[in-house]
What does this fold into?
Amino acid sequence: MKLNFKREDLLNAINIVLKAVSSKTTMPILECILIEAGTRGVYLTANDMELGIETKVSNCEVLEEGKTAIEAKLFSEIVRKISLEDDSNVSLSSDGTIVTIVCDNSTFRIQEKDPDQFPELPSIDQEHYITLSQFTLKELIRDTIFSISPNDSNKMMTGELFEVQGDHLKVVSLDGHRISIRNTVLRDRYEDVKVIIPGKTLNEVSKILAGDNEKEVVIFFSKNYVLFKFEDTSMVSRLIDGEYFKIDSMLSSDYETKVTVNKKEFLDCIERSTILIRESDKKPLIMNIEDSSMSLKMNSMIGTMDAQILIHKEGRDLMIGFNPKFLLDALRVIDDEEVCLYMTNPKAPCFIKDQEENYIYLILPVNFNPASY
Amino acid sequence: MKLNFKREDLLNAINIVLKAVSSKTTMPILECILIEAGTRGVYLTANDMELGIETKVSNCEVLEEGKTAIEAKLFSEIVRKISLEDDSNVSLSSDGTIVTIVCDNSTFRIQEKDPDQFPELPSIDQEHYITLSQFTLKELIRDTIFSISPNDSNKMMTGELFEVQGDHLKVVSLDGHRISIRNTVLRDRYEDVKVIIPGKTLNEVSKILAGDNEKEVVIFFSKNYVLFKFEDTSMVSRLIDGEYFKIDSMLSSDYETKVTVNKKEFLDCIERSTILIRESDKKPLIMNIEDSSMSLKMNSMIGTMDAQILIHKEGRDLMIGFNPKFLLDALRVIDDEEVCLYMTNPKAPCFIKDQEENYIYLILPVNFNPASY
It folds into this structure.
């Protein structure tokens, strides 16, 4: 095999597939990037057996077809450092044992791995799919990914529900203390789909997506896999098996107290209160909601914080406590200038949502002793 | 005590003294910042018993004089987050038990510590001193600090020699494998001084100095302490006791081979070669110096690198090996476009220095088997 790359294009492709390189594995071949040069161009592939990524390298000259596998981190470092000019020419050749990489005045020679040991990406039946803009997909992930569960004790909570009904896509994540829901309207109508995509996959997809509103991504759904296809890149991931939680019964549109508040001011006050929290001393943030103002109080071993915020209130006065982190996570991804909170009583969930229900954040309150506030 | 600060000025002062706050100590008072408000203004002080910093807060209104001590990290976080506007007004008051900090709509109340327990900074006899620009001091430190020894087994190697003779200041650091020397001419003549300043102190001084060429810093030397005074800040540090190494006998101006090389090209090639080095497998970089070119070779378990650089050579051909890190450290702080290396044989030290000997870097070569290169 003998190839000529433009350094920048090779580096871009490496950075994309690096996201699927196994960091801890007993199979050394999974730490490699597969390079395949054929008539359709030059492709890089990485596969950690959960997530696989394949991408085409732009502007590559194939002098001799073939394939090889190179330890990914080493390959990435060599290409990054072999020249500091983006448009330098990098030549790569393989004799079946040694890969030689030449650029400017430097030559690297490294052992290659047997490319035939590299596990092929699963082929996906491309019957069921949806199309949306990269920007929208990136937003949907950003707005929900924070409330997946970080630990594996309930596998389903480590993923997100993607549910397609007609021209409507709903994305849901939950971790037992809160639920995050994002609804969006697609440009076409599609067949119904209901799958659970691993959170790790969505995180990686989100990092690679350019986030362009003009550029599209196609998501193909099969029984066990999901495939994200955009520009020159394909990402294949396993799905999480099982029936997702029935969340509709947990949602309610009744409320006794509705608060409208400036999002930034609310967010800043909550962030401030977390100064007084230590890992070992989890304290709730107490919101005391009255006619036109809301007081926020935090009492911890370290000290106290009091803050006053002007609000617009409908319904009853209420005193309610929350884990401030859960409020912060939701507020940080809301782009609106004002947010509305819907509450019933100090034991019932609070809903932060917009009029059109593009987003719904359900957060459970925490118990506290009202006498001490 | 009752004070009004401009948030930005208070935060600047906190950030300066934070550098001398003890992170691990059995004396909780050393984790605090002392605040003293008197007729000469408001001063913040921190002291970890090795290094002490005192700074004056600008634009502070003293409504009631007094003093208090507050846990430094907490204080810093509160002032950072209590408002996002630099020019917000922060009021701070103390009743001897509780400190109350108010800004915009938020109020923090935290326990204060007994300010009388705070250890006073040593008072320094201000007889012997030198004056130089902040820029120069910052440069002298940057250019030498990398070759102090990181471990305490030889205390003197963890500091730097500051030697004043007439109008000449020499700064030296060494770690057993290399010596870094910076010479500079002062604007006045001073009394002779020879002290060893702890590397940690120099690191912190360097971080706080604005690095301005117009602004000055005065360094006072006493028997056991050094005091850096600039703008509204004083930093006092213990000195390291003892007689510094006699380095003059290690320096020599004889050489058999002189190489002149483009610094950036040389540096890039060496950086590239370190890709192939792992902690467990320390390999030398071999330089093969011939008439108008130098080849750099790295052979490791991972692979090989070869690079060619054009040079100007005087004297004999030479093959010599170095720990690439030592070359990198020196080259990174040299601002010249071209550097000169002076060598004698594969066992004798290499000198990287300029004509005027503003800088001299002595690096010991490492043994290698010439047959394998």
Summary: Chain A has three domains: 2-117, 128-248, 252-372. The longest strand of chain A covers residues 178-198. Residues 2-117 of chain A form a domain with the DNA Polymerase III; Chain A, domain 2 fold (CATH 3.10.150.10). The helical segments of chain A are 7-17, 72-81, 134-142, 199-208, 263-273, 324-333.
